[in-house]
């Protein structure tokens, strides 16, 4: 598709969400529950707060499938447009795919080992919702059969995320092969659906302080706030460690190309912006400056870095899978090969569709489908979203470092980066 309208990034609505109010609701709920736990009033409070928390959780869950479907279509159509932008783009996308697979595999291997070596604190199960049964994950043969749903509506009703993800990925690819006028219409439709669903989830998340307070109060009443606080700290450190693996890998790539001291020195300003803003987009000017210091081709840097901000988050598979695996560990769920493959596949595809979203929305949209695909209950995610802004610092830091390392790796052969190639790529931004 040569038309700029067809290739432009989707214009998604921007939401300002009550992140710190949500965190305050979590802390207040845990403290209040700890103070009245074991008191006679607790028996009267629990039946009141539980329905409030459950209602908010259900409102959060109802947005997942339509939003994921719309974002997948938009993300993959944009990715397909980028792939046709020239040799530089194709080389970049190959590196992106390899990075995302590495990111997910690293967590699949490392996090279970970490949780065995440093298990969650006693009472960690307090974060679990009551009366929640893990989903059944099929065996290997059934897993391959489950990749395709004979009835996509029934799959949506059953929240079967893996066949839904595959269906909408194929649907998105089909859109890119349609005549230009039809493709633009469908892309505009899904852009409108995404914006409408973002507004709905934005309204739901504005109620997050109340919903999280109710859920946290119920947790503390059942098991005490101390165990919940310690578990959340353990969770944050465990998930952040998975992002740390990606950060180290990105640094190694940059250090091999430029030397560790030179790469570290060049990255410091961009990393400082990343930590302070928790936004890859806000870090883009500093990332471009870092690429200049590293003598990355200007044409390549000006193409790769804006595009990577739009479609690439190196930490997404690692940290999103990390959340699902952590929750499974709390439930005592043994994740076999089919569950891990399902989670990796969904994490890979979902990472394309949610990269430009605020952290709390991205948390719900990205991790919910992964957990559902792996047979992991999603109920604990309602509490974990309240602390997402802390591991999000590691997400942004590693993503920014990986983006610059990606630009450097893409530029490994300057002779191939012709002006025409870079010009073609500019139209895909």
How would you characterize the overall build of this protein?
The structure is a single chain. By secondary structure, the protein is mostly helical. The chain has one domain: Proton glutamate symport protein (Orthogonal Bundle). The chain has helices at 4-7, 19-36, 42-61, 64-83, 87-117, 140-145, 152-157, 161-176, 180-206, 208-223, 225-258, 260-277, 284-293, 298-311, 316-331, 337-353, 359-374, 381-384, 391-410, 419-426. Residues 1-7 and 414-429 have low confidence and may be disordered.
Largest sheet: none
The H-and-E topology, N to C, reads as HHHHHHHHHHHHHHHHHHHH
- Write down the overall mean pLDDT: 80
Q: According to CATH, what is the topology?
A: Proton glutamate symport protein
Q: Please write the CATH class name.
A: Mainly Alpha
Fraction of helical residues: over 70%
Which geometry do the CA atoms define?
A: globular
- Parts with pLDDT < 50 across at least 5 consecutive residues: 1-7, 414-429
Indicate the CATH architecture: Orthogonal Bundle
User: How many distinct domains?
Assistant: 1
Q: Count the beta strands.
A: 0
Radius of gyration: 22 Å
User: What percent strand?
Assistant: under 5%
Oligomer: single chain
Structural class: mainly alpha
Note the main attributes of this structure.
429 residues, mainly alpha, Proton glutamate symport protein, 20 helices, 0% strand
């Amino acid at each position: 598709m040569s038309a700029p309208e067809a290739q432009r990034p989707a214009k998604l609505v921007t939401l300002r969400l009550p992140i710190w109010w949500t965190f305050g609701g979590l802390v207040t709920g845990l403290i209040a529950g700890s103070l009245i736990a074991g008191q006679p009033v607790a028996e009267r409070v629990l039946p009141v707060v539980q329905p409030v928390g459950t209602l908010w959780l259900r409102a959060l869950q109802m947005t997942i499938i339509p939003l994921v479907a719309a974002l997948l279509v938009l993300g993959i159509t944009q990715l397909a447009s980028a792939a046709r932008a020239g040799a530089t783009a194709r080389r970049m996308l190959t590196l992106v795919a390899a990075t995302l697979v590495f990111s997910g595999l690293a967590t699949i291997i490392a996090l279970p080992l970490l949780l065995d070596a440093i298990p969650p604190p006693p009472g960690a199960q307090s974060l679990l919702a009551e009366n929640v049964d893990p989903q059944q994950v099929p065996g290997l043969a059934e897993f391959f059969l489950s990749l395709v749903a004979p009835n996509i509506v029934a799959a949506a009703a059953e929240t079967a995320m893996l066949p839904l993800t595959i269906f909408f990925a194929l649907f998105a690819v089909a859109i890119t092969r349609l005549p230009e006028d039809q493709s633009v219409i469908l892309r505009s439709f899904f852009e409108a659906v995404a914006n409408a669903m973002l507004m709905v989830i934005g309204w739901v998340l504005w109620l997050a302080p109340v919903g999280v307070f109710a859920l946290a109060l119920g947790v503390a009443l059942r098991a005490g706030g101390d165990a919940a606080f310690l578990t959340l700290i353990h969770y944050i450190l465990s998930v952040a460690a998975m992002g740390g693996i990606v950060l180290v890998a990105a640094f190694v790539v940059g250090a091999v190309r430029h030397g560790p001291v030179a790469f570290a020195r060049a990255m410091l300003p961009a990393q400082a912006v990343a930590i302070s803003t928790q936004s890859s987009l806000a870090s883009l000017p500093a990332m471009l400056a870092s690429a200049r210091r590293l003598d990355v081709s200007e044409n390549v840097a000006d193409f790769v870095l804006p595009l990577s901000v739009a479609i690439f988050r190196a930490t997404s598979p690692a940290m999103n899978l990390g959340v699902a695996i952590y929750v499974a560990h709390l439930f005592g769920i043994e994740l076999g090969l089919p569950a891990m493959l399902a989670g990796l596949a969904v994490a890979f595809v979902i990472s394309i569709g949610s990269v430009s979203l605020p952290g709390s929305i991205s948390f719900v949209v990205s991790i919910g489908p992964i957990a559902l695909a792996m047979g992991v209950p999603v109920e604990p995610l309602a509490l974990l979203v309240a602390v997402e802004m802390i591991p999000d610092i590691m997400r942004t830091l590693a993503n920014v470092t990986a983006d610059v390392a990606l630009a450097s790796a893409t530029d490994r052969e300057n002779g191939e980066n012709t002006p025409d190639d870079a010009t073609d790529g500019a139209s895909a931004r």
